[in-house]
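[job 4471] stage=fold_predict status=RUNNING
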Amino acid sequence: MFDRNSELINSDLGRSQKAQKLITKIVNALTRQSEIGAPMTSMYLLKHPDHYTSHEFQWFYWHSYLKEAKKA
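[job 4471] inference complete, writing structure tokens
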């Protein structure tokens, strides 16, 4: 990432502007390669939960269940 953006890093911009532009490029690269949008990426980078619920759910291991069902 830094090699491809050396012109940004070596520019005359202030540190905060460089950081902001670099983070924007990173976020754009993340959203371009996956099917999540910018709001979801922002929530992830800010370490906010990706969903809110009033319940706590248990893990269900579907592949293990399916494997056992196919044996029967």
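[job 4471] summary: Helices lie at 6-9, 15-33, 38-45, 62-71.
[job 4471] exit 0
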